[in-house]
Amino acid sequence: MKTMHAMVLEAPGRPLQYREVPRPEPGPSELLLKVQACGVCRTDLHIVDGELPGPKRSLIPGHEIVGTVVQVGGEVKGFARGDRVGVPWLGWTCGTCRYCRRDRENLCENALFTGYTRDGGYAEYTVADARFCFHLPEAYDPVSAAPLLCAGLIGHRSYRMAGEHVQRLGLYGFGAAAHIIAQVARHQGRDVYAFTRPGDEAGQAFARRLGAVWAGGSDTRPPHPLDAAILFAPVGSLVVRALEAVDKGGTVVCAGIHMSDIPSFPYRLLWEERVVRSVANLTRADGEAFLAVAPEVPVRTAVQPFPLHEANDALNRLRDGDIEGAAVLVME
Ligand SMILES: [Zn+2]
Ligand SMILES: [Zn+2]
Fold first, then answer.
1. Does 293 fall in a domain?
2. What is the pLDDT of residues 23-37, one digit of tens each?
3. How close is the Cα of 301 to the center of ligand 1, in Å?
4. From ligand 2's centre to the CA of 62, what distance in Å?
5. Which ligand is closest in space to the CA of residue 96?
6. Of the bound ligands, which one is closest to the alpha carbon of residue 46?
């Protein structure tokens, strides 16, 4: 039996364990990938901390996977050995539920998610359903491409949900997703207002370097009303702060999968057609769209590499807000 090294979540709330485990075999519609890099996403932190229900038992996390195809299942079309591919959060959908039939596969009732309800990329090898894998733009090396696969993809879906006629865009939480979306927004001529943890002057300077016209603490008001805001920080009270900051008709998009409770607030903050909405998961069309946009901008990702066995360190630093850009696990 062939084996591999992986970081395994035996129980939520406990650190990942560095283990030697069986190397997976690809099914007929799957690819076996040698993982080159895997991004560390805030969702991984929510899974490891037990804030999301029902993860797979003995889970290998990680859903921003860049790998090379080493074996191709018999029914796979469009991929060959040696191809470099990206594997995102959406790992499988049924194709038959009422959401799938209406082009809303991000809401599929039977979906499987990479690194949550199926094994992900905190490992030397992984298998992925080829129908949900992407060919990656040539311009990116594996490490800089990894954050595109969730921070980029779901960030971009959130960005589109913020509306088409947005000039002043607020980004709350200036981490992996915001640092990518700020570049896209600026490329499209929009003004980015970056909100960080209060007092995080390094984070604010990072946002200004990426072209933000204004950066400040999330407890402060921007100098002008915003047309829309995207919340990447998992802090419910920021929904209220963002509603206070958006103009009439403005949208507040909650981009994360988990957030602390939203405190009650006066109706006048929602009045005048302000909208609060969430964004869940991605569709394959979102992936194709963003991976076409990224090299045009071009999006350049800021990454902090970690070896596979230091995944807990990467997660802890993400929890502490101590990552500039995106943390990425890099395999040998
Ligand atoms: Zn479905
Ligand atoms: Zn993610």
1. no
2. 999 999 999 999 999
3. 32
4. 8
5. 1
6. 2
